[in-house]
Amino acid sequence: AFASLLRRILCAWLLSCSYGPAASEAARCDSAARTAAAAEGVPAEVLLAITRVETGRRQAGILTPWPWTVNMEGEGRWFPDRASMLDYVAHHVSRGATSFDLGCFQINHRWHGDAFRSLDDMADPE
């Protein structure tokens, strides 16, 4: 019984640990999900799950969301940072791309892009 409890405590501690810069980037999506959930009256678990399904990647064995994710006309990509992602998107937009999903929740530019001032604004998890 004690060993089982100890394992559960260790697992909980490991899940709460930071994994360096990647953890802070993943936390951006979680923060955005919790903020939106509170503002809109949606269970936070739903939005947290969406970020993982839409942008999740495994880090240290744990599925974590990634804010710098794009699905460009059916091809998903994860970028190391916001600037790299925006450069990629700008390049494709200049070539006529209109249907792509961006950021933590993979918001579609074609259908929802008008709700944002710019691509940079659309990329902001907060």
Automatic annotation (TrEMBL):
InterPro entries: Lysozyme-like_dom_sf
Signal sequence, renumbered to the chain: 1-22
Highest taxon of the lineage: Bacteria
Keywords noted in UniProt: Signal
Entry keyword annotation includes S-adenosyl-L-methionine: no
Protein name: Lytic transglycosylase domain-containing protein
Biological source species: Rhodosalinus sediminis
Lineage of source species: Bacteria, Pseudomonadati, Pseudomonadota, Alphaproteobacteria, Rhodobacterales
